[in-house]
Structures are given as structure tokens and as C-alpha cells.
Amino acid sequence: MTGGNVITCQKIVYQNVLTLSDIGFEAPRTLLARYRLDLVEVENGQPIPGSFWGDCEAGIIGLVVYARPDTPVHSLLHEAGHLIVLPEEKRAQVHTDATDSVAEEDAVCVLQAILGDALPGVGRERIWADMDEWGYTFRLGSAKAYFQNDAGDAFAFLKLRRLINDRLQLL
Q1: Strand 38-41 relative to strand 64-67: parallel, antiparallel, unpaired?
Q2: Please, is 133 exposed, middle or buried when counting C-beta atoms within 10 Å of its C-beta (0-12, 13-18, 19+)?
């Protein structure tokens, strides 16, 4: 997908970031339902429940991911990823802040790109580009470089939870 918007979030202007207004809510809603999660659309301009960062960033409370049309797709997938990697019995306890685990955070950064492949017209390449534009930092300089050269532990984390296969695709 070549779309994307110039958006302002947390008083920072981001260029060409793919938002839910570009792809709609239906495909992400269907994807999250595979993991027994709900996606709730919040009206533009309204606070997003469970958003750790606030403004346009997605939020999580229990089994629900909240987002607005101006929410970046990568943000939605990242926050959903936190719930997806958790055992189901722990998901209901989550409110806003999913973890302080570095291993989980690394796995979620990888998972959000893989989840991007499941959204028509999105794909991991687009998610990596948006992560870089948003300011995610990786010691190899980019989300793609991290994924391709430094994410072995994150892949092992996701495989152990039976979320991806050896070809780094969703199960």
C-alpha cells in the first residue's frame, strides 16, 4: 500500500504513515478476532482508552484494542501484539501497560511486522518503514535490519508461543 498520511501525534509531525483511515477497520478487526481480541473504533478527537502514549496511539484494556481512524496501523498491531503474546488467562488483567519485559517488547516489534503481512495491501515492508518514521530505535539502525539480522531471540519467543512458523509466517 502506497498510501499514508501526514499526521501529528504527541505534537510531532510524521510523514506518510499508514493509518486506519487508509485501510479501514474491517481487515484489522478480522485479524484480531483470530486471536480472540476485539477492535473498538474510537471517534476522531476522542481520547483512546488504554493508550499508554496517548493522542492517536492505540490502547489496550483486557481483550480489547482501541483505535481511532488516525491511529497508525503499526501502533494498532504493536498494542495488539502485546495481548497476542500473552497467555489468554493473563490478557484480561492488562490495562494500558502490557509489560516491562524486554524479551516481550522485542517479540512484539517483530510480530507487528508479521501481522502486517495479514492485512491486505500492508505487509511487513510498510510496517518497518512506518516504525522507522515513528522513531522506533534498533541498534542496527532500522526495523528491517533488526528483523533480518538481530531478532533471533524474538523469533524464538514467538515460535515457543506457537505464533509463527520457521518461515516467519503466522500460524
Answers
A1: parallel
A2: middle
CA distances from 120 to 11, 26, 28, 114, 123 (A): 30, 11, 9, 12, 7
Q: Could you read off the pLDDT of 87-101 as tens digits, one per residue? A: 988 998 999 887 779
Average pLDDT over every residue of 122-142:
93
Contact 56, 72 (CB under 8 A): yes
**Cα-Cα-Cα-Cα dihedral of 27, 61, 71, 105, to 10°?**
-90
Alpha-carbon span 122 to 55, nearest angstrom: 23
Helix axes 123-134, 102-116, angle to 10 degrees: 130
